[in-house]
Amino acid sequence: MGWSNFLFVYGTLKKGYANHHYLVEAGLLGEYRTANAYPLAIEPPWWVPSLYERPGQGHRVTGELYVIDDGIMRFTDELEGLTRVDGYYRREIEVAHDDGSGRRWAWTYFRRGHPPDPARVPYLETYVDRRYVPPAERDQRGAE
């Protein structure tokens, strides 16, 4: 299987976060930033980071760029719920190395729907939050 896909991640798939194990076999190319501004928000109760495809709103979002194979892409597509109505969809966007060099096109995941009101939920430039609740724990917390 070839390493033919670039994937830009901005949330729990980043190194050191809850879902990074999906990318442990991937090749990290470094820290990158979106060429356009996008709204990145996290909302209660599960504190899931969500990027919305509204170019020009929000900030140029910082994340990590990986080179991945088709197998890893299938795993991340499943994680992000591409087939669910409340999930994400994948789109190619332009990203640049954080130092401004190395522009390239990469896949990223956008949340379906509308971004929250920035007066209620501020848009972020970088995801560093640790309150994310994995899906397996959501039923337990919802029942409390």
Description:
The chain is mainly beta. It is built from two helices and seven strands, in the order E-E-E-E-E-H-E-E-H. It has helices spanning 70-79, 135-143; strands at 3-9, 27-38, 40-43, 48-51, 59-69, 88-97, 104-111. The strands form two sheets. It has a five-stranded antiparallel β-sheet. A two-stranded antiparallel ribbon has the order 3-4. The chain starts with a strand and ends with a helix. The model has no long low-confidence stretch (mean pLDDT 92).
Q: Strand order, main sheet: write it out.
A: 1-5-2-6-7
**How much of the sequence is in beta strands?**
35-45%
- Low-confidence spans: none
Q: Topology as H/E string? A: EEEEEHEEH
How many alpha or pi helices?
Answer: 2
Assembly type of the chains comes to single chain
Overall structural class, as computed from helix and strand content, comes to mainly beta
**What number is the mean pLDDT?**
92
**Helical content class:** 10-25%
Number of strands: 7
Distance between the termini: 45 Å
Indicate the radius of gyration in whole angstroms: 15 Å
**What general form does the structure show?**
globular
Question: In a few lines, what is going on in this structure?
Answer:
This protein is 13% helix and 39% strand.
Quickly list its features.
five-stranded antiparallel β-sheet, 144 residues, mainly beta, single chain
Write the layout of secondary structure elements.
Layout: E1 3-9, E2 27-38, E3 40-43, E4 48-51, E5 59-69, H1 70-79, E6 88-97, E7 104-111, H2 135-143
Antiparallel strand pairs: 1-5, 2-5, 2-6, 3-4, 6-7
